[in-house]
């Protein structure tokens, strides 16, 4: 199909499609002449993924990393998560002190060498941000964070599709990135419900 | 103190401080002459909060909303979360279909009118993003999301400081925004730990 048909089928405007082509998010169509290219179902599917990621607040740079991970799945299921997470997590910051983060994630069952460094660095950066404003998470709350995230991960990993590396990468990468805004929104709704119960009456309107 | 001392004490460069002043994130110092202004502890503290938010990946626009919520706490604890969440959540999208989101959050104990519309819209947008790429969260996984977020919220709300509205707003707003990257990082670490256990050997490197 032509770029105008690709636009009509996906609801993405032609200038936006051209922008994604220039940014390398969408692969070029098959050249049919000097000024025309042909697009297929692969492009329709890829445009849906791009829109979902950008609408979820993922940056252009991270979207490029996510698409790269989808295009180039690792060979073994064992490396899957590390590779996928490394692709979608900002690069490590060597100067960061990991002591506190390592102590914390031990509560998840983590042992040294057990996960991609980028993910551990992300945890350390988050702790640093809290510390910098003098915000300390109470012990009981932190214990609940650890227990809940471990339970969530167990449920998610139990559901990783086993039929192909491609299906597994798609599940892991999209599941990591696109489920995040859902989890955060559910936490905020739950906070308002819980607050309404604690402080009585309706929790605002 | 002068702007150069404010810079030395916080490690934020003078041009960056001037940028925050122009963007309205940092209040002006007290004018001591036509070209000089005096800054105090309030500015040091505010710069720490700004840096923590921006480093956590919060946008300038959202940072401005968060700071607004810190400066203008609601009068009653009952309205606290709704007001704080409305301040830090993108505006509602009227065209969004909320049916599926409402069905889902009923599992958190939510009832109609019980939370700020912006938060419900955020959940609906997240569900829409998943649906658009054909990603369906398995029932067992979704049940774990709901149960975990409710437990987390209960622990968090139980810990809201009661001494003043200002302390409570600070706890709620910074707790919402700055804890988010920590939760997401913990989820990724837990996924790698869980994956390592399921697929055997080390989970990546």
Shape, principal axes of CA atoms of chain A:
elongated
- The end-to-end span of chain A amounts to 48 Å
Strand sequence of the main sheet of chain A, in spatial order?
A: 1-2
Helical stretch tally of chain A: 9
Oligomeric state of the chains in view: homodimer
Largest sheet of chain A: 2 strands, antiparallel
Structural category of chain A = mainly alpha
Order of helices and strands of chain A: HHEEHHHHHHH
- Which segments of chain A are poorly predicted (pLDDT under 50) over 5 or more consecutive residues? none
Helix content of chain A: 55-70%
What is the count of β-strands of chain A? 2
β-sheet strand percentage of chain A: under 5%
The greatest interface here is: A-B, 94 and 93 residues
Q: Radius of gyration of chain A, Cα only, in angstroms?
A: 21 Å
Mean pLDDT of chain A: 85
Protein name (chains A, B): MerR family transcriptional regulator
Organism (chains A, B): Microbacterium maritypicum (Microbacterium liquefaciens)
